[in-house]
Amino acid sequence: MAPGFNLSPTALGDGFRLESFPEIGSTNALALQRAAEGDPGKLWLVTGHQTGGRGRRGRPWEGRPGNLAATLLLRPKVELARAASLGFVAALALHDALEAVMPRSRFAIAPDGGNLAGGGRFALKWPNDVLGDGAKLSGILLETSGAGTGDLAVAIGIGVNVVDHPRETPYPATDLAALGVACSAADLFFALSDAFVDNLRLWRGGDDLAAVRDKWLGSAAGLGSDIAVDTGGRIVRGVFETIDADCHLVIREANGHMTKVAAGDVHFGAVASVKNLKANV
Q1: Other CB atoms closer than 10 Å to residue 207's CB: what's the count?
Q2: Of 28, 48, 62, 228, which sits with the fewest C-beta atoms within 10 Å of its C-beta?
Q3: pLDDT at position 3
Q4: Does the domain made of 9-217 have the CATH classification 3.40.1180.10?
Q5: Could you give the C-alpha distances from 76 to 41, 181, 202, 207, 209, in angstroms and in order?
Q6: Which of 41, 71, 22 is nearest to 192 (CA)?
Q7: Cα distance between residue 258 and residue 163, in whole Å
Q8: Is it the case that residue 37 has pLDDT exceeding 80?
Q9: The whole model's pTM is what?
Q10: CATH 3.40.50.300 fits 226-280, yes or no
Q11: pLDDT tens for residues 245-254?
Protein backbone atom coordinates (compact mmCIF):
# COMPACT_ATOMS: atom_id res chain seq x y z
CA MET A 1 0.00 0.00 0.00
CA ALA A 2 1.34 3.42 -0.95
CA PRO A 3 2.14 5.63 2.05
CA GLY A 4 -0.03 8.61 2.84
CA PHE A 5 -3.48 7.45 1.73
CA ASN A 6 -5.90 6.64 4.53
CA LEU A 7 -9.63 6.19 4.99
CA SER A 8 -11.46 8.46 7.40
CA PRO A 9 -12.66 6.93 10.69
CA THR A 10 -16.24 7.24 9.41
CA ALA A 11 -15.41 5.26 6.28
CA LEU A 12 -13.54 2.60 8.27
CA GLY A 13 -16.45 2.32 10.68
CA ASP A 14 -18.85 1.84 7.78
CA GLY A 15 -16.87 -1.10 6.42
CA PHE A 16 -14.96 0.52 3.55
CA ARG A 17 -11.57 -0.89 2.59
CA LEU A 18 -8.56 0.63 0.82
CA GLU A 19 -5.83 -0.43 -1.58
CA SER A 20 -3.39 2.30 -2.60
CA PHE A 21 -0.56 2.34 -5.11
CA PRO A 22 2.40 4.62 -5.89
CA GLU A 23 1.48 4.26 -9.58
CA ILE A 24 -1.13 2.34 -11.53
CA GLY A 25 -2.50 2.13 -15.05
CA SER A 26 -6.24 2.51 -14.33
CA THR A 27 -8.00 2.35 -10.97
CA ASN A 28 -11.30 1.66 -12.76
CA ALA A 29 -9.84 -1.28 -14.69
CA LEU A 30 -8.47 -2.77 -11.48
CA ALA A 31 -11.82 -2.26 -9.72
CA LEU A 32 -13.65 -4.20 -12.44
CA GLN A 33 -10.98 -6.90 -12.21
CA ARG A 34 -11.56 -7.11 -8.46
CA ALA A 35 -15.30 -7.41 -9.11
CA ALA A 36 -14.71 -10.28 -11.55
CA GLU A 37 -12.66 -11.98 -8.85
CA GLY A 38 -15.64 -11.78 -6.49
CA ASP A 39 -14.83 -8.73 -4.38
CA PRO A 40 -17.91 -7.76 -2.32
CA GLY A 41 -17.45 -4.01 -2.86
CA LYS A 42 -17.00 -0.98 -0.63
CA LEU A 43 -13.40 -1.04 -1.86
CA TRP A 44 -11.39 2.10 -2.63
CA LEU A 45 -8.48 1.86 -5.09
CA VAL A 46 -6.36 5.00 -5.09
CA THR A 47 -3.11 6.40 -6.46
CA GLY A 48 -1.25 9.66 -6.84
CA HIS A 49 -0.15 8.76 -10.37
CA GLN A 50 -2.46 7.08 -12.87
CA THR A 51 -0.82 6.37 -16.22
CA GLY A 52 -3.69 4.85 -18.22
CA GLY A 53 -6.81 6.67 -17.09
CA ARG A 54 -9.77 7.35 -19.34
CA GLY A 55 -12.78 9.60 -19.39
CA ARG A 56 -16.21 9.50 -20.99
CA ARG A 57 -16.59 8.09 -24.51
CA GLY A 58 -13.15 6.47 -24.26
CA ARG A 59 -11.26 9.76 -24.05
CA PRO A 60 -7.90 9.61 -22.29
CA TRP A 61 -7.68 11.18 -18.82
CA GLU A 62 -4.25 12.72 -18.50
CA GLY A 63 -2.76 11.82 -15.14
CA ARG A 64 0.06 13.89 -13.61
CA PRO A 65 2.16 12.76 -10.62
CA GLY A 66 0.64 14.20 -7.46
CA ASN A 67 -2.92 14.32 -8.78
CA LEU A 68 -5.64 12.07 -7.35
CA ALA A 69 -7.07 9.04 -9.11
CA ALA A 70 -9.50 7.01 -7.02
CA THR A 71 -12.13 4.40 -7.78
CA LEU A 72 -14.80 3.12 -5.44
CA LEU A 73 -16.11 -0.36 -6.21
CA LEU A 74 -19.69 -0.87 -5.10
CA ARG A 75 -22.07 -3.82 -5.51
CA PRO A 76 -25.46 -2.08 -5.20
CA LYS A 77 -28.57 -4.23 -5.36
CA VAL A 78 -30.36 -1.95 -7.80
CA GLU A 79 -31.21 -1.90 -11.48
CA LEU A 80 -28.57 -0.69 -13.89
CA ALA A 81 -30.51 2.50 -14.69
CA ARG A 82 -30.73 3.40 -11.01
CA ALA A 83 -27.02 2.70 -10.50
CA ALA A 84 -26.23 5.48 -13.00
CA SER A 85 -27.31 8.03 -10.37
CA LEU A 86 -24.23 7.09 -8.34
CA GLY A 87 -22.34 9.52 -10.56
CA PHE A 88 -24.31 12.34 -8.95
CA VAL A 89 -23.59 10.90 -5.50
CA ALA A 90 -19.89 10.92 -6.36
CA ALA A 91 -20.06 14.53 -7.53
CA LEU A 92 -21.73 15.57 -4.29
CA ALA A 93 -19.15 13.71 -2.21
CA LEU A 94 -16.29 15.32 -4.11
CA HIS A 95 -17.88 18.76 -3.79
CA ASP A 96 -18.16 18.27 -0.02
CA ALA A 97 -14.55 17.08 0.16
CA LEU A 98 -13.31 20.09 -1.79
CA GLU A 99 -15.22 22.41 0.50
CA ALA A 100 -13.56 20.67 3.45
CA VAL A 101 -10.02 21.24 2.15
CA MET A 102 -10.61 24.77 0.84
CA PRO A 103 -13.34 27.07 2.20
CA ARG A 104 -15.52 29.05 -0.17
CA SER A 105 -14.41 32.42 -1.44
CA ARG A 106 -17.05 35.10 -1.77
CA PHE A 107 -16.82 35.57 -5.52
CA ALA A 108 -16.09 33.35 -8.50
CA ILE A 109 -16.56 33.97 -12.19
CA ALA A 110 -16.78 31.26 -14.80
CA PRO A 111 -14.48 32.06 -17.73
CA ASP A 112 -16.95 30.68 -20.29
CA GLY A 113 -19.84 32.80 -19.03
CA GLY A 114 -21.64 30.14 -17.03
CA ASN A 115 -22.95 30.97 -13.58
CA LEU A 116 -21.47 29.30 -10.54
CA ALA A 117 -23.82 28.40 -7.74
CA GLY A 118 -23.95 30.44 -4.57
CA GLY A 119 -20.76 32.41 -5.24
CA GLY A 120 -18.72 29.34 -4.32
CA ARG A 121 -15.43 28.26 -5.83
CA PHE A 122 -16.73 24.80 -6.76
CA ALA A 123 -19.69 23.92 -8.94
CA LEU A 124 -21.11 20.74 -10.47
CA LYS A 125 -21.26 20.55 -14.24
CA TRP A 126 -23.79 18.06 -15.57
CA PRO A 127 -23.35 15.17 -15.81
CA ASN A 128 -19.99 14.33 -14.31
CA ASP A 129 -17.53 17.21 -13.91
CA VAL A 130 -16.59 19.37 -10.95
CA LEU A 131 -15.45 22.92 -11.73
CA GLY A 132 -13.09 25.14 -9.79
CA ASP A 133 -13.66 28.85 -10.50
CA GLY A 134 -15.43 27.78 -13.70
CA ALA A 135 -12.63 25.56 -15.08
CA LYS A 136 -12.54 21.77 -15.10
CA LEU A 137 -11.01 20.45 -11.91
CA SER A 138 -12.27 16.88 -11.86
CA GLY A 139 -13.97 14.22 -13.92
CA ILE A 140 -16.08 11.25 -12.82
CA LEU A 141 -16.51 8.02 -14.79
CA LEU A 142 -18.88 5.17 -13.97
CA GLU A 143 -18.24 1.74 -15.46
CA THR A 144 -20.25 -1.38 -14.75
CA SER A 145 -20.18 -5.14 -15.10
CA GLY A 146 -23.19 -7.41 -14.74
CA ALA A 147 -26.72 -6.33 -15.53
CA GLY A 148 -29.01 -7.64 -12.80
CA THR A 149 -29.63 -6.53 -9.26
CA GLY A 150 -27.77 -9.57 -7.95
CA ASP A 151 -24.48 -9.34 -9.84
CA LEU A 152 -24.06 -5.63 -10.65
CA ALA A 153 -20.67 -4.07 -10.00
CA VAL A 154 -20.11 -0.32 -10.32
CA ALA A 155 -16.66 1.25 -10.57
CA ILE A 156 -16.91 4.96 -9.70
CA GLY A 157 -13.74 6.59 -10.96
CA ILE A 158 -12.79 10.07 -9.76
CA GLY A 159 -9.85 12.01 -11.15
CA VAL A 160 -8.88 15.34 -9.58
CA ASN A 161 -6.24 17.82 -10.72
CA VAL A 162 -4.49 18.47 -7.41
CA VAL A 163 -1.04 19.84 -8.32
CA ASP A 164 -1.18 20.20 -12.12
CA HIS A 165 -3.59 20.18 -15.04
CA PRO A 166 -3.41 19.63 -18.82
CA ARG A 167 -3.14 22.77 -20.95
CA GLU A 168 -4.19 21.58 -24.41
CA THR A 169 -7.86 20.91 -23.66
CA PRO A 170 -11.12 21.92 -25.38
CA TYR A 171 -12.37 23.32 -22.05
CA PRO A 172 -10.52 25.53 -19.54
CA ALA A 173 -8.89 23.37 -16.85
CA THR A 174 -7.36 24.09 -13.46
CA ASP A 175 -5.92 22.39 -10.38
CA LEU A 176 -6.09 22.93 -6.65
CA ALA A 177 -2.57 24.38 -6.47
CA ALA A 178 -3.51 26.95 -9.12
CA LEU A 179 -6.55 27.84 -7.02
CA GLY A 180 -4.26 28.58 -4.10
CA VAL A 181 -4.75 25.54 -1.89
CA ALA A 182 -1.83 23.55 -0.47
CA CYS A 183 -3.52 20.17 -0.49
CA SER A 184 -2.07 16.75 -1.28
CA ALA A 185 -3.86 13.94 -3.07
CA ALA A 186 -3.86 12.06 0.25
CA ASP A 187 -5.48 14.99 2.09
CA LEU A 188 -8.24 15.22 -0.51
CA PHE A 189 -8.82 11.47 -0.56
CA PHE A 190 -9.21 11.37 3.23
CA ALA A 191 -11.95 14.02 2.97
CA LEU A 192 -13.52 12.26 -0.03
CA SER A 193 -13.74 8.91 1.75
CA ASP A 194 -15.50 10.65 4.62
CA ALA A 195 -17.94 12.61 2.45
CA PHE A 196 -18.85 9.57 0.38
CA VAL A 197 -20.32 7.84 3.42
CA ASP A 198 -22.75 10.69 4.09
CA ASN A 199 -23.79 11.03 0.46
CA LEU A 200 -24.36 7.30 0.03
CA ARG A 201 -26.63 7.47 3.06
CA LEU A 202 -28.48 10.34 1.38
CA TRP A 203 -28.94 8.15 -1.72
CA ARG A 204 -30.41 5.39 0.48
CA GLY A 205 -29.65 2.52 -1.87
CA GLY A 206 -31.15 4.42 -4.78
CA ASP A 207 -34.44 5.10 -3.00
CA ASP A 208 -33.97 8.85 -2.49
CA LEU A 209 -32.98 10.39 -5.82
CA ALA A 210 -35.06 13.45 -4.90
CA ALA A 211 -32.68 14.31 -2.06
CA VAL A 212 -29.65 13.76 -4.30
CA ARG A 213 -31.22 15.89 -7.04
CA ASP A 214 -32.04 18.75 -4.68
CA LYS A 215 -28.56 18.83 -3.18
CA TRP A 216 -26.94 18.62 -6.63
CA LEU A 217 -29.01 21.55 -7.93
CA GLY A 218 -27.81 23.61 -4.98
CA SER A 219 -24.29 23.58 -6.45
CA ALA A 220 -25.08 23.31 -10.17
CA ALA A 221 -23.02 25.28 -12.69
CA GLY A 222 -24.90 27.21 -15.35
CA LEU A 223 -28.38 26.81 -13.90
CA GLY A 224 -30.67 29.30 -15.63
CA SER A 225 -28.05 30.25 -18.23
CA ASP A 226 -27.60 29.55 -21.94
CA ILE A 227 -26.51 26.00 -22.64
CA ALA A 228 -25.72 23.79 -25.60
CA VAL A 229 -25.49 20.01 -25.36
CA ASP A 230 -23.87 17.84 -27.99
CA THR A 231 -25.81 14.58 -27.69
CA GLY A 232 -23.81 12.85 -30.39
CA GLY A 233 -26.72 12.99 -32.79
CA ARG A 234 -27.64 16.67 -32.58
CA ILE A 235 -26.88 19.81 -30.60
CA VAL A 236 -29.65 21.00 -28.28
CA ARG A 237 -29.59 24.71 -27.36
CA GLY A 238 -31.59 26.68 -24.86
CA VAL A 239 -31.63 27.52 -21.16
CA PHE A 240 -30.54 25.09 -18.46
CA GLU A 241 -33.86 24.75 -16.63
CA THR A 242 -33.22 21.95 -14.11
CA ILE A 243 -32.54 18.24 -13.85
CA ASP A 244 -35.55 15.93 -13.60
CA ALA A 245 -36.38 13.16 -11.13
CA ASP A 246 -34.03 10.79 -12.98
CA CYS A 247 -31.23 13.40 -13.03
CA HIS A 248 -31.63 14.01 -16.78
CA LEU A 249 -30.80 17.51 -17.98
CA VAL A 250 -33.85 19.64 -18.86
CA ILE A 251 -33.36 22.38 -21.47
CA ARG A 252 -35.93 25.03 -22.35
CA GLU A 253 -35.46 25.58 -26.08
CA ALA A 254 -36.20 28.87 -27.84
CA ASN A 255 -39.69 27.66 -28.82
CA GLY A 256 -40.49 26.91 -25.18
CA HIS A 257 -40.24 23.15 -25.58
CA MET A 258 -38.70 21.32 -22.60
CA THR A 259 -36.16 18.80 -23.87
CA LYS A 260 -34.70 16.11 -21.65
CA VAL A 261 -31.15 14.92 -22.29
CA ALA A 262 -29.81 11.69 -20.78
CA ALA A 263 -26.18 12.08 -21.93
CA GLY A 264 -24.05 14.61 -23.77
CA ASP A 265 -21.28 17.19 -23.68
CA VAL A 266 -22.31 20.49 -22.10
CA HIS A 267 -21.18 24.02 -23.07
CA PHE A 268 -22.22 27.20 -21.26
CA GLY A 269 -22.45 30.90 -21.96
CA ALA A 270 -20.91 32.40 -25.09
CA VAL A 271 -19.69 29.02 -26.32
CA ALA A 272 -23.26 27.69 -26.22
CA SER A 273 -24.37 30.25 -28.80
CA VAL A 274 -21.73 29.36 -31.39
CA LYS A 275 -23.47 27.70 -34.33
CA ASN A 276 -20.60 25.42 -35.34
CA LEU A 277 -20.06 24.13 -31.83
CA LYS A 278 -17.67 21.30 -32.59
CA ALA A 279 -15.37 23.53 -34.63
CA ASN A 280 -15.07 26.12 -31.90
CA VAL A 281 -14.40 24.14 -28.74
Answers
A1: 10
A2: 62
A3: 56
A4: no
A5: 9, 35, 14, 12, 15
A6: 71
A7: 40
A8: yes
A9: 0.88
A10: no
A11: 999 999 999 9
